[in-house]
């Protein structure tokens, strides 16, 4: 069979499973999740053994050490994955919730209820824990899934899905609820993205290149996740002590993640006081600063920021800094350069805060807090599929509900139109 | 300028307007809608005069009479459009509604509120009333819009948007809230679909060809509307008198629309009684019947249905008919051939009804009523953008809420992570 046909065949099997899964009860799903957790722990030696082969192959290919670190599974990491499965079982079931009901003058009773998507396609990169995580969240939301992991983890992912599928089927979950693509060819991603009507939604989880490729080629609806050029604006009415603490933490607490700050905006009235203080702290913490002209008037040694800097997600200990005239100018800058992810204002001026929250176009707009809180767990969702940076369907941190759609159920007694 | 650049330029202007529109009040929007209605009525002679040019050009091109009928504007139709604007003003404002609030253990207060998309792209065909309708719904939901109408109505649409824009601006709505593409070139549609980050969502309203072209080329998220291969299944436990009434009406009341029935499924236990009765009624009403083998055993004169018939949206006085063994067989047939639009069961068996509603994958699943009710007005939404047949974001009849997204507003007092 051609690669394309193999992918389509697997998606068809997942679709058939999905149509049955709409009838699963919460108890069936939860007992399967517990069984999957037990199976991972029971078969940990198999997993560790096969994972060593992936690690060795990666080392032979000269893969970077931090990538290899992400790839390695040990007892602790397997226990964490099992714990994740059990935590997912404990979350409320997103399916069946009724959020709208109306009885029309003609007597028709219309209800709207949460139902699964059907088949969710997830395309991701190296970390094998995403395999377990994605399978768990899709099952809990009564979706079948087609999983496509990175080639580095292919042996580990195959083993993990084999174990999960065995455990699931033994609990009465339909066969093919999890379909793992064994094809590591990059074109398999494109093939998946064209399976409109078989796959209901595709969620790419990975770098900007992967996401752009999926968006470009997909006819299946996509939920875009990820990129974050996040801003903090320190207003003239800011508590500067608080601003120092929040701004520093938003840059250095974990610079590699999407919710960390990339650009700092400072109101001109406080720049002479605030900029030298924050610059000192940043430099002590090994952060490279790149400023606009006005910054460099205050701190002439600062490197000059280019147009490119304003649009860059550094994911690193680098910060671009700009001095602005007003909250309006800060909003304009942010709406020009942000990625619709997370932006913050530090201010004690309620009117400025409200204007900022109303006019900044982003999934999450903060007042007096770090952008680093944009996260499904921090928001209390108990899970995170990713952070949506598009506006359709889901925006910001996505919990289980983002893996559902709705359906209208209408009851009558012979009404015609 | 190249055509692509013109389209991009207009989208950029709309984007700038959109960023300001997030701050509009309900009163501002409603007074603009009333002013737009008044302006259409006041300038009706201008509209009728220019519309006659479109009609004449269409006649000279040999356009079909039913297309020309849709194109014509007269006093009555202009009054209807104005009334539509006023009705939109009276609808509840979908913006600002808060549907989620939580205070986290660290003191962060997280709220989720409804906000506009930003720029909505609407691509539609001949009817000029869609221009007014789309502009009204986008304004009421605080969105800017880029409108692309069919070439037959180009002069009328230009005039209508000129009038609407004048009225809107006089009420303080930002300039460029409505951008109408004056380019009738088909490639303008493709150019629009590639403007990711400038246009937030594209809604095609029109035939299957238009929708397929948009889905194929768009990198902007699309809400697919339209196609309906709707089924009614008459169960063995049906009230057959009710079934005759509902089935007949669902086929003949308005065969050209997407929510009319295209395929009838009949349980084998009642087929001998029900099929001859419904066939007689259908034939009396000029409906052509196409049946499977079992139907033709009962009524040998019936034309044979082909595989193609099961997937066809006739939009005409044609009906395919199939006899099935069980509710499960009916569900399987529907899940294979439907377009996720609307399907119905006629039964007095509660268990069969529940199974049907749970397992049929469609936006609207009916018990004992006609599929013809799938409509924003019939559902009590007061408006209809279209009927979504995809699962992302909106499903089924879309009211004003479907033109909104949400945003998280987070307030803290210096929290860091």
Question: Can you put this structure into words, describing what you see?
Answer:
Two copies of one chain form a homodimer. Chain A is an alpha/beta fold. Helix content of chain A is 44%, strand content 21%. Chain A is built from 15 helices and 16 strands. In chain A, the strands form four sheets. Chain A has a seven-stranded parallel beta sheet, sandwiched between helices. Chain A has a four-stranded parallel beta sheet with strand order 5-4-3-6, sandwiched between helices. Chain A has a three-stranded antiparallel beta sheet with strand order 1-2-16, with no helix packed on it. In chain A, strand 14 and strand 15 form a beta hairpin. The longest helix of chain A has 19 residues, at 3-21. The radius of gyration of chain A is 24 Å and the shape is globular. The relative contact order of chain A is 0.13. At the A-B interface, helix 10, helix 15, strand 13 and strand 16 of A face helix 10, helix 15, strand 13 and strand 16 of B. Strand 13 (364-369) of chain A pairs parallel with strand 16 of chain B.
């Amino acid at each position: 069979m051609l690669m394309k046909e193999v992918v389509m065949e697997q998606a068809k099997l997942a679709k058939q499973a999905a149509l049955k899964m709409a009838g699963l009860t919460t108890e069936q799903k939860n007992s399967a999740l517990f069984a999957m957790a037990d199976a991972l722990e029971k078969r940990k030696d198999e997993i560790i053994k096969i994972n060593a082969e992936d690690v060795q192959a990666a080392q032979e290919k000269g893969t970077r050490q931090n990538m290899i670190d992400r790839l390695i599974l040990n007892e602790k990491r397997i226990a964490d994955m099992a714990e994740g499965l059990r935590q997912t079982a404990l979350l409320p079931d997103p399916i069946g919730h009724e959020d709208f009901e109306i009885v029309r003058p003609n007597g028709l009773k219309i209800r709207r209820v949460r139902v699964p998507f059907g088949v969710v396609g997830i395309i991701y990169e190296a970390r094998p824990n995403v395999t377990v995580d994605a399978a768990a969240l899709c099952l809990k939301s009564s979706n079948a899934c087609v999983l496509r992991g990175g080639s580095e983890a292919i042996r580990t992912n195959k083993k993990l899905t084999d174990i999960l599928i065995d455990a699931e089927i033994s609990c009465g979950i339909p066969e093919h609820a999890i379909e793992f693509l064994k094809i590591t060819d990059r074109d398999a991603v494109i093939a998946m993205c064209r399976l409109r009507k078989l796959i209901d939604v595709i969620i790419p989880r990975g770098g900007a290149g992967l996401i752009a490729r999926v968006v470009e080629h997909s006819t299946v609806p996509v939920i875009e996740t990820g990129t974050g050029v996040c801003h903090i604006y320190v207003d003239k009415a800011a508590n500067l002590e608080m601003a120092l603490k929040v701004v520093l933490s938003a840059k250095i607490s974990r610079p590699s993640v999407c919710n960390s700050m990339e650009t700092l905006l400072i109101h001109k009235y406080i720049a002479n006081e605030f900029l030298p203080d924050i610059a000192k702290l940043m430099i002590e913490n090994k952060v490279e600063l790149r400023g606009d002209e006005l910054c460099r008037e205050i701190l002439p040694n600062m490197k000059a920021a280019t147009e490119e800097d304003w649009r860059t997600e550094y994911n690193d200990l680098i910060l671009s800094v700009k001095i602005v005239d007003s909250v309006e100018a800060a909003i304009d800058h942010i709406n020009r350069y942000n990625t619709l992810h997370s932006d913050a204002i530090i201010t004690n001026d309620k009117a400025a805060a409200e204007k900022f929250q109303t006019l900044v176009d982003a999934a999450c707009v903060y007042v007096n807090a770090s952008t680093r809180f944009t996260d499904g767990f921090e928001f209390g969702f108990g899970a995170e599929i990713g952070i949506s940076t598009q506006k359709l369907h889901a925006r910001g941190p996505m919990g289980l509900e983002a893996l559902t759609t709705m359906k209208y159920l209408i009851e009558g007694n012979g009404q015609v139109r």
